[in-house]
Every structure is written in C-alpha cells, then in structure tokens.
C-alpha cells in the first residue's frame, strides 16, 4: 500500500497528541505544526518518535484567521519536499483520533486512485451567512502579540471596530467560492496544484487573508475551480448552515465545541468515519482506551464490525 502523509495542526495536550501520533505512524509519516504561541518543550517526546517531522516554519495561530491556512500550506510544502512519494496528504488536528484501523483508510483511498476527499458547497447559496465570510474584511490577526495588557486590549478594540465597519473585501472575479470542512485528504498531485495556484495568484491569497475562517473555504475553492474538481467528492447541495455537514473523514459534533467522551462510544462505533474530533486526554482518555481495545488492537478483525 502507498504511504500517507498526515499533516497535523496542534497547539496543546501533548499527551493526547502523542497517543494520536502513535496510531498514525504505522500508516504514514506525520508532519506536525505546533502553534508558535505554545511551549515547544512540552512536545519534546514527539521528536524522538520515528516518522515524525516538525514543521519547518511555525505560525502563531489566530482563531478564524489566515494563519491556519499558512500553517497548512507549510506542512504541505514540507511533505511534498520529502523523498517519500506520498499517495495522499491527510489533514488532521491534534485533537483527532482514529475510529478505525488506518490500514482500512489506506485501502479505502487506494480503491479510487486520484479521488480528492473534499466536499464543499457553493457559498453563493448562503448569501446571508457564508458569503459574509468573504465579501467583507475580517481583522483576526493581532497587530500586537506582546503581554502588556493595555496594549492587548487596545489591539482587540481596534480590530473590533475594523470588523464593525464591514469594509468590503475584493474577491477575485470568476472564482466560485466553495465552503467545507477544514479536514480533508488530497492527492499529492492535487496538493502540488494548490501550491502552484497560490504562487501564481497573489490576489486570491490576499482576498482570503482578510476573510473569516479561510481554512474552511481556501482549499475548497482552489480544488473546486480546478481540473481536480471532477475527481473530488465535491459539490454538495446547501441544506443549511453547519460545518459538520461537510465532514469528509471525521465525526464532528454539530456544535463544533463539544468534546467526545467514553459515553459517546455507542454513537461513534456505529459511524463509518475514520476519525473523531474532538478528543482530549483530560476527558477522553476512557474513549481512547475503548477505541484502541474495540477497534485498533492487534487482535481486532475489521470484519467483526
């Protein structure tokens, strides 16, 4: 089977991240980005794990900001620069965990070579919600990153006023905007196309730099307007607001906020998804142990489920 590259965005909970990586490395190499605001020493043990490569460049991640896209693009470049020929690059968060053996995921992807595992909807079908993400400017990146509290508060106030002004954002003409879940699996060839597109279209990058949550439309828009769209899971009908509706490989709670615990196992075990998000060591250790015992142990047979 072809080897996978797992691109993992993390910022905390080194204990859970280590448990996640331990499950990933038998199936692929892990390219790990740790938020530049986090203490890297907390993740030192991961540097000793085979198959783990830390991001060449670290970015300070801002909620709903372009920094998430920058970190993802960096991991993509790192993976494609490696000597290993990866079939797919799979984007995950540090709070994900496999629900099924990743050999099954590899076989699943191998059955349809060239398929792009990314679903999206046309943002123009949601003029009052999703289109607001791109047709006005959002100031999510702090101008001041120090710890002097008055300056922190001033920075927040200035950006809040900027957001309230609802300044128009210049979206590139002729580019259909698509929205979907941040977490996807794209072929290496598709990822090369993405990086090439980014290099050739600075106006697209700038339009996304001041958009809201670009990680949920940046890659989807590039793929959806590309020759790779024909092989993507692709365009879905608009059935209402909710990122969870566009989930590709993950079980995601509709609230996007709730963390899964062991009590959720009956629901999770009935899912055909390959990952669950969100799980953490503080509340989800029992769930992780249950998944490992029921699904990921060496004695488990996939045919049993």
UniProtKB/TrEMBL annotation:
Gene Ontology molecular-function annotations: metal ion binding; protein xylosyltransferase activity
GO CC terms, sorted: membrane
Primary localisation category: endoplasmic reticulum
A biological process term (GO) from this entry: heparan sulfate proteoglycan biosynthetic process
Topology of this chain in the membrane: Single-pass type II membrane protein
Domain of life: Bacteria
Alphabetized UniProt keyword annotations: Disulfide bond, Endoplasmic reticulum, Glycoprotein, Glycosyltransferase, Golgi apparatus, Membrane, Metal-binding, Signal-anchor, Transferase, Transmembrane, Transmembrane helix
Pfam hit, one: Branch
Location relative to the cell: Endoplasmic reticulum membrane; Golgi apparatus membrane
Keyword Oxidoreductase (UniProt): no
UniProt protein name: Peptide O-xylosyltransferase
């Amino acid at each position: 089977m072809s080897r996978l590259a797992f691109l993992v965005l993390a910022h905390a909970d080194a204990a859970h991240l280590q448990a996640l990586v331990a499950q990933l490395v038998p199936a692929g190499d892990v390219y790990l980005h740790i938020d530049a605001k986090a203490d890297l020493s907390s993740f030192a043990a991961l540097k000793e794990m085979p198959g783990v490569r830390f991001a060449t460049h670290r970015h300070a991640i801002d909620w709903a900001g372009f920094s998430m896209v920058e970190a993802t693009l960096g991991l993509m470049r790192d993976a494609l620069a490696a000597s290993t020929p990866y079939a797919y690059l799979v984007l995950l968060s540090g709070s994900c965990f496999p629900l099924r053996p990743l050999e099954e995921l590899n076989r699943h992807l191998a059955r349809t070579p060239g398929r792009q595992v990314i679903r999206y909807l046309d943002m123009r079908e949601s003029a009052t919600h999703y289109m607001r993400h791109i047709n006005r400017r959002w100031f999510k990146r702090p101008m001041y990153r120090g710890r002097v509290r008055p300056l922190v508060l001033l920075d927040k106030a200035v950006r809040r006023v900027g957001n309230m002004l609802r300044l128009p954002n210049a979206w590139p003409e002729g580019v259909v905007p698509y929205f979907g879940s941040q977490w996807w699996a794209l072929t290496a060839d598709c990822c090369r196309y993405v990086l090439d597109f980014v290099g050739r279209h600075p106006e697209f990058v700038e339009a996304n730099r001041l958009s809201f949550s670009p990680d949920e439309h940046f890659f989807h828009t590039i793929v959806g307007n590309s020759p790779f769209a024909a092989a993507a899971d692709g365009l879905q009908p608009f059935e209402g607001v909710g990122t969870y509706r566009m989930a590709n490989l993950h079980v995601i709670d509709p609230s996007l906020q709730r963390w899964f615990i062991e009590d959720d196992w009956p629901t999770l075990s009935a899912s055909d998804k390959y990952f669950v998000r969100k799980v953490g060591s503080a509340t989800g250790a029992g769930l992780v142990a249950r998944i490992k015992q029921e699904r990921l142990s060496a004695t488990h047979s996939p045919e049993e489920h």
